[in-house]
Design brief:
Blueprint: H1 12-30, H2 45-53, H3 57-70, H4 73-82, H5 88-113, H6 117-135
Length: about 150
């Protein structure tokens, strides 16, 4: 039995914008240099709810990637303005992380729409853990700056 939204949202761009802004705001508060960690537990729920309800996988992917990128603006401030590193020091790694997060959200969405609810629930955390594991081999400083 496949999962399908009962009623497609009437204003998908508005809902996607709200989900993106809310997830990004929760990430900004829950992560960064002075995090309030309980917000991280719910930070991705707006984007995941959007991915579950929208009929457009592109909209879900863009909302996920943009929310992750906007949620890392505290790192932009630290890397670029405090440490005086070039803008690429923030943009490159966090753009890659944003695209990987979008892929994880699409995996969640695909499994949910195929009726594999349990698989969908564990797909994003498992995918993100795998990404973090592979990322630990790349830089000289291990997992510094991971999400």
């Amino acid at each position: 039995m496949a999962f399908a939204p009962q009623h497609p949202p009437k204003r998908p761009l508005l809902l996607a914008s709200l989900a993106t802004i809310l997830s990004a705001a929760l990430l900004l508060v829950g992560d960064g240099m002075n995090p309030l960690w309980p917000f991280m537990w719910i930070a991705f729920l707006p984007v995941l709810l959007l991915a579950a309800e929208t009929t457009s996988w592109r909209l879900a992917a863009v909302a996920a990637a943009l929310s992750m990128l906007l949620g890392t603006l505290t790192f932009l401030h630290y890397l670029h303005f405090v440490l005086q590193l070039p803008l690429a020091a923030w943009l490159l790694p966090f753009s890659i992380a944003s695209l990987l997060f979008a892929a994880g959200v699409l995996l969640f969405r695909a499994l949910l729409h195929r009726g594999a609810v349990f698989g969908a629930v564990i797909a994003l955390p498992a995918f993100w853990t795998l990404c973090e594991y592979f990322a630990s081999f790349v830089p000289a400083n291990g997992t510094a700056g991971d999400r």
